[in-house]
Amino acid sequence: MMKYFVDEHSIVRKIWGKADTVLFIFAGASAEFALNKAVDWLYFTGRLPADPLGRLFSTVEYARLILFSKHDDALAAIDKITAIHQGVEQARGAKIPDWAYRDVLFMLIDYSIRSFELLERKLTAAEKQEIFDTFYKVGSRMGISGLPLTYTAWKPMRKKHLKDDLIKSTYSVDLYTKYKQHLGNLRYLLLKQVQMLLVPTQIKEMLPLGRTSLLRPVLWAYKVARSIKIDWLLKEAILPTQYKAQIRGLDQSF
């Protein structure tokens, strides 16, 4: 019997098998990335500021490769990610701190939950534990130290990371400038509206997102459109042309 890294019926596959949910996950993460004290590591290679959307889709492809692959193939993908980071560390002559690795892993857990609950329904405690367990396996394979063992233990650690590891810096301002340049005014506004719905309060207070999201009624209309299978019309209207094919590919059935 073929063994997958993530069970075929897992809630994790449901979350990461829909384009809109995946895009919301990375909308939230893109806000937090801008404030993370270790964002200079993403600037070191120059890839993030040069092409933030390309970097996003590269990350999406790796995440989905892990979550939808056979067990051994997923482990090979995780090992490749580890090797890439080690190469960056060697080039810079310094080590990425363990808390920075944990931060990224914690983002994937948190925004997976937040995005699904915003777009679909509330998750059960067991489903949240399942999401945590999946990313715990990824972090454990990467050799990240100090990881909590349960979703319950993760929650206070997540709050502490949000308190200790975020700062508004010149990188934060520059990254949002790059988002606007690459997305254009309308899509940039939409990104910030999504972020306003998703991110924790302290992130909202540190970034220029605004006070009230205008998306809640739009989100209701989108859910209706999705239920009658015309949501692709909205996606076509708002997505950057050069990435439409890649985004459509996120909606594959597994």
General description of the model:
The protein is mainly α and 254 residues long. 30% of the residues are buried. 73% of the residues lie in helices and 0% in strands.
Distance between the termini: 17 Å
Shape designation: globular
Tally the structural domains. 1
Helix content: over 70%
How many E-type strands?
A: 0
List keywords for this structure.
15 helices; mainly alpha
What's a quick, concise take on this entry?
The chain is an all-alpha fold and 254 residues long. The protein has helices at 11-16, 19-35, 40-44, 47-50, 52-67, 71-92, 98-119, 125-142, 151-164, 170-183, 185-198, 201-206, 215-227, 231-238, 244-249. It contains 15 helices and no strands.
Helices and strands in order:
Blueprint: H1 11-16, H2 19-35, H3 40-44, H4 47-50, H5 52-67, H6 71-92, H7 98-119, H8 125-142, H9 151-164, H10 170-183, H11 185-198, H12 201-206, H13 215-227, H14 231-238, H15 244-249
